[in-house]
């Protein structure tokens, strides 16, 4: 476990097939990740996420597609990166794992690779405007993530 | 990412150093001795970890008479911690939304099949 990984798990009262389409279909993605999305759903396929309120279009690349089980992509977040090549030093890896749980789904999210990001501290914190929480609370969060505790929302 | 940034992350990644940062956040101006009393480690170990934290700029020390007092350097910590906290809070919101969308889809399918 490194300090640069975010892990979350949530139980959803819907079958993995249902959760899968929400995670991977462009019009569904736009409901929970930004305002508009495009996706070429195959390993190496391109994806874009538009965040109108931040005036940002993020470039992403699909990494893993195992229907109803695993979906992963790398994305260049926090700034407009449309058309840029996605690399290990300009993007983070987002992985979704879906496990059947009764009639529902256990969904696990891992975002990793923050410590490999290049770029100035200004750039890395540019997207944080409006975050009014104190830094003491943020350390608490950081420690929590680092220890891999999961927030169970269900 | 330059070497300094990498050092910063590995400095935070160590459990004892995270405890030290926590302790210094609640009691700024702590000494190596007072920190060793609070944590289950020796004063020597505390001094070693403080030196690492100071080297990456997460902690600053100042001499007060015969003592050296340590405090967290907030701006440095903010850069590292805020990015993670922000990203994680965003995921909490997104996952809650995914759950809502999926469960609403199931409900809709059940209603229409009745």
Structure explained in plain terms:
The complex is a heterodimer of chains A (154) and B (114). Chain A is α+β, with helices and mostly antiparallel strands and 154 residues long. Chain A contains four helices and seven strands; from the N terminus they run E-H-H-E-E-E-E-E-E-H-H. Chain A has a seven-stranded antiparallel beta sheet with strand order 1-7-6-5-4-3-2. In chain A, a hairpin with a 4-residue loop joins strand 3 and strand 4. In chain A, helix 1 packs across helix 2. The longest helix of chain B is centred in the C-terminal third of the chain and has 40 residues. Chain B has a two-stranded antiparallel ribbon with strand order 1-2. Chain B is mostly helical and 114 residues long. Helices cover 73% and strands 11% of the residues of chain B. In chain B, a hairpin with a 2-residue loop joins strand 1 and strand 2. Classes of the chains: A alpha+beta (154), B mainly alpha (114). Chains A and B meet through strand 1, helix 1, helix 2, strand 7 and helix 3 of A and helix 1, helix 2 and helix 5 of B.
Give me some keywords for this one:
heterodimer; A: 154 residues; 7 strands; globular; disordered C terminus; B: mainly alpha; two-stranded antiparallel sheet; 5 helices; 2 strands; 73% helix
The low-confidence runs of chain B, each spanning 5 or more residues with pLDDT under 50, are none
Global outline of chain A: globular
Largest sheet of chain B: 2 strands, antiparallel
What is the CA-atom radius of gyration of chain A, in angstroms?
Answer: 16 Å
Low-confidence stretches of chain A: 120-154
Counting DSSP E segments of at least 2 residues, the number of strands of chain B comes to 2
State the share of residues found in helices of chain B, binned by percent: over 70%
Largest sheet of chain A: 7 strands, antiparallel
The helix fraction of chain A, in percent, is: 10-25%
- Average pLDDT over all residues of chain A: 78
Strand content of chain A: 25-35%
Cross-sheet strand order for the largest sheet of chain B: 1-2
Strand count of chain A? 7
Alpha-carbon distance between the termini of chain B? 57 Å
Instruction: State the secondary-structure class of chain A.
Output: alpha+beta
């Amino acid at each position: 476990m490194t300090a640069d990984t975010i892990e979350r798990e949530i139980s959803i009262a819907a079958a993995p097939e249902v959760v899968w389409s929400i995670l991977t279909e462009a019009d569904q993605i736009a409901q929970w990740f930004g305002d508009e999305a495009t996706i070429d759903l195959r390993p190496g396929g391109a994806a874009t996420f538009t965040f109108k309120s931040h005036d940002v279009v993020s470039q992403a690349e699909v990494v893993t597609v195992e229907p109803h089980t695993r979906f992963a992509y790398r994305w260049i977040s926090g700034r407009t990166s449309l058309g840029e090549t996605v690399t290990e030093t300009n993007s983070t890896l987002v992985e979704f794992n879906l496990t059947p749980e009764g009639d529902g789904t256990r969904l696990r999210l891992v975002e990793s690779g923050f410590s490999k990001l290049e770029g100035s501290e200004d750039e890395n914190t540019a997207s944080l405007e409006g975050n009014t929480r104190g830094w003491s609370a943020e350390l608490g969060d950081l420690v929590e993530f680092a220890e891999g505790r999961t927030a169970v929302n269900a | 990412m330059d070497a300094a940034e990498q050092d910063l992350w590995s400095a935070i990644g160590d459990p004892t150093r995270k405890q030290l940062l926590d302790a210094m956040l609640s009691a700024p101006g702590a000494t190596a001795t007072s920190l060793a009393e609070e944590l289950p480690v020796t004063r020597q170990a505390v001094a070693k970890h403080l030196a690492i934290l100071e080297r990456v700029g997460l902690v600053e020390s100042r001499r007060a008479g015969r003592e050296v007092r340590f405090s967290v350097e907030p701006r440095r910590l903010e850069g590292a911690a805020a990015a993670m906290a922000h990203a994680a809070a965003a995921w909490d919101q997104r996952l809650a939304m995914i759950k809502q969308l999926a469960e609403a889809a199931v409900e809709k399918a059940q209603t229409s099949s009745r």
